[in-house]
Amino acid sequence: MNQTSNSPTRAGFLILFALGSGEKHGYALMREARELSDGDFQIGPATLYTTIQRLLESACIKEVNGPKNSDSRRRHYALTGSGSDVLNLELKRMEAMVKKSKSMRLRAAGSES
Amino acid sequence: MSGLVRLSARAYGGMLLLYPSDLRREFGPEMHELFGEDLDDAWQSSGVAGVLRVWWCALCEFLRIAVPGLTENPAFVVPLVASAFNALSLGSMLAGVISHHPLPADGSLMDEIVAHVFLPALITALTTFVVVRTGKVTVTSLQLNVGTETCSKSAI
User: Fold this and answer.
1) Could B65 and A45 be called an inter-chain contact, meaning their C-beta atoms sit closer than 8 Å?
2) In chain A, is it the N or the C terminus that has fewer CB atoms within a 10 Å radius of its CB?
3) Euclidean distance between CA atoms B84 and B68, whole angstroms
4) Alpha-carbon span A29 to A17, nearest angstrom
5) CB contact under 8 A, A44 and B26
6) Does residue B106 sit at the A interface (CB-CB below 8 Å)?
7) Shortest Cα distance, chain A CAs vs residue B121, angstroms
8) Across the interface, do B30 and A44 touch by the CB < 8 Å criterion?
9) Contact indicator for A44, A22 with CB cutoff of 8 Å
10) pLDDT above 80: residue B138
11) Which among B3, B23, B18 has a CA at the least distance from the CA of B59?
12) Given CB atoms, is B52 within the 8 Å cutoff of chain A?
């Protein structure tokens, strides 16, 4: 999966979005991804780490050292420059879609009246 | 941590063995730990329902991520197909025999199934697994030997 040219998967997007507010470890990412989707998207360990693996391979995220007092067994991840680009591009694409859908709804509403 | 949670975490550890080896090597311990934490939280917040929810998610993931990888692995597919074929043919033969010669009063159908269907199928599965694995190793080592020879010849 080429994350820079294609849209990320839903799990990929949620992970990038969660990392947008700062570095996190796996469990925090999983919890935040669930919260962001209002519990609609059930992300488990296998989906999380398969996605993390792809994002690491495509250099959208990188492994970083966690805070000094954190559990050493936990691996922390952070967004890279290209990861930020992918996230921003996806957010812009979504924003454009929302704008487009709003204008289409207005036009539809106009044609009804 | 309750017994159910501990048992679930152990079962998930076993399930992890069926995930793609690269994912398991890189993230296996983390996946196991994360599943345990998730279970623990679910147990504390929703009890058995929470544990079932976590398991449902894990099973869906297993079907989506682990199973496609397994179907591409000859060491899994060949023994599975061979033992299924074996069990099917022996099972139908056993059914034919039993329909003509009913079991004695003290005979158990389950014993017959285990002895004439299950055990041969298991032996077939193990044998084909060993054959596929050794076949793989031999082919790999042969390729390596040929590769070295070619390299040394070209170097000369």
Assistant:
1) no
2) C
3) 19
4) 10
5) no
6) no
7) 31
8) no
9) no
10) no
11) B18
12) no
CB atoms B65 and A47 under 8 Å: yes
User: Min CA distance, A102 vs chain B (Å)?
Assistant: 35
Token pair recorded at residue B85: 């074929």
Domains and CATH numbers, chain A: 10-103 (1.10.10.10)
Rg of chain B over Cα atoms, rounded to whole angstroms, equals 23
The first and second tokens of residue A111, run together, are: 């044609």
Structural contact between residues B23 and A49, judged by C-beta atoms closer than 8 angstroms: yes
* Cα atoms in the 13 Å half-sphere on the side-chain side of A33: 26
Residue of B8, B11, B92, B109 whose CA lies nearest to B51: B8
**In A, which residues are within 8 Å of B57 by CB distance?**
42-44
Reported as a single tens digit per residue, the pLDDT across B105-136 is 776 777 888 888 888 888 888 888 888 777 76
**Order of strands, sheet of A61-64, starting from the edge strand that comes earlier in the sequence:** A24-25, A76-79, A61-64
A88-102 pLDDT per residue, tens: 999 999 999 888 888
Partner A contacted by B61 (CB < 8 A):
yes
Q: A31: distance to nearest CA of chain B, Å?
A: 9
Pair of tokens at residue B2? 């309750």
Bridge partners (DSSP) listed for residue B64: none
Nearest residue, CB atoms, B34 vs list A42, A45, A53: A45
CA atoms in the 13 A half-sphere facing the CB of B5: 20
Other beta carbons within 10 angstroms of residue B19's beta carbon come to 24
